[in-house]
Every structure is written in C-alpha cells, then in structure tokens.
Design brief:
By secondary structure, the protein is an alpha+beta fold. It is built from six helices and nine strands; from the N terminus they run ααααααβββββββββ. A hairpin with a 4-residue loop joins β2 and β3.
C-alpha cells in the first residue's frame, strides 16, 4: 500500500505494452485515487466503463469488480474499493460482498438451511429473478432466466429445469438436466451480514463465474 508511485509505473507500463488488458485500468485508477489524482483516476477508468456500457452489461460496478479481486487483508480491500468509487465506478461505498472465512457455512449448515426449502435470487447480469426448490433428499427444480451469451445481455427467456443437489466438502453441488450442459456445478456459500430478504442476498454463493446472492424464499 505504501509504494503507490512504483505501482503506478508498473501498471502504466503493462497497459502501454498491451492496451487490451482492461483489468489494468482498474489498478491504474485505484492507484491514482490513492495518490489524490482523482481526475486522472476517472480518466483512466472511463474507457472500461464505456466499453461495457456499449454492450449493455452491468459488470463494471463495485460489487462485481470486488468479486474479481478477492483480498485477505480487509484494510487493503477497503482501500481498493474506495479507490474505485472515487474513480467513478458505479456503486455505493462499502457496497460489496464481504466474503470472509468466518462467514463461510459448513456442509451441515448448508443442508439444514437449503434442503427441503425454496431459495430465490436475482441473476447478476440480467437482473431477473430465479428460484430453486429442493426436497430433503436433494431432488431439485430450477425456474428462472436462461442467461446471457458472450457477456452480452440477450432477450432473456425464462426456463425450467430439473436436477439434483448434494453437499460435499462444505460445498453445495448442483447438476441439472440442461443448465451448464448437464455438468456438475459446485461452490461454497457465505452468510452475508449486510443482506436483506428484499434484496435476496442474505447468502452468497461464490462460483467461478461470479457471485450468486440469494435468500430463502417467502
């Protein structure tokens, strides 16, 4: 955190070498912000925001960007998030999921909370609501958006699918007849202290393709 000038030289060098490295722009913007160069920070981030806005994809926001850059040090995490906000990234200060080890659910907790139960959330990209109903043995049904293609929002149709769920190694596993090509999908789940039933984000699954916030359905 204390070698900002050196970091800026490295990031700007990387961007000059390969301007297509969009992720470098967030680093440059955060470094400028923490150096007090807010105008430069905003100018650094503008191309990335404009690029995704043109695609109609709301992935350049604080919550999604913080998913892509997990931190173990909470102070560094907050410093990075504050830098992005100062640089003009959409989002609210402190408006990102705190994925900390102490909030991770055990396998027993996952089974007790989410089996013989219906959960629901809002799909990150489309904003459409989805539902998963599981019985006590893990038989599951899905209803919700089909998704998006190549990072661009499409005319999102609602689909239904069936499958099964089970718990191993403190992770929930899902396998659907059609979703994800019928491949197994697994992830840990964390309690979200800032979540609410209205936002349907009292729990957060952390997957290789993004956050999966959800709550137990009414």
């Amino acid at each position: 955190m204390g070698q900002l000038e050196e970091a800026l030289v490295a990031f700007e060098g990387a961007h000059k070498h390969n301007p297509k490295l969009g992720w470098v722009l967030t680093r440059i913007a955060v470094t400028y912000s923490n150096l007090g160069r807010i105008k430069d920070a905003r100018n650094a981030l503008k191309p990335l925001i404009k690029y995704y806005a043109g695609k109609g994809v709301e992935v350049v926001n604080l919550r999604t960007q913080m998913y892509l850059r997990p931190f173990k040090d909470k102070e560094v995490e907050k410093c990075f998030a504050d830098g992005l906000i100062k640089a003009g990234l959409p989002g609210e200060p402190d408006g990102y999921y705190k994925i900390y080890q102490e909030n991770k659910l055990t396998g027993a907790e996952i089974r007790d909370l989410f089996f013989d139960q219906t959960v629901s959330g809002f799909e990150i990209i489309s904003g459409k609501q989805w539902w998963i109903k599981r019985d006590k043995d893990g038989k599951a049904t899905y209803r919700g958006p089909k998704g998006y293609v190549k990072g661009e929002v499409t005319d999102v149709e609602e689909i239904s699918d069936s499958g099964k769920s089970w718990v191993e190694r403190n992770r929930i596993y899902n396998q659907w007849a059609n979703l994800f090509g019928g491949l197994e999908d697994c992830f840990p789940i964390y309690n979200n202290p800032d979540g609410t039933p209205e936002k349907k984000d009292e729990y957060v699954g952390v997957t290789v393709y993004g956050f999966v916030p959800f709550s137990i359905a009414d």
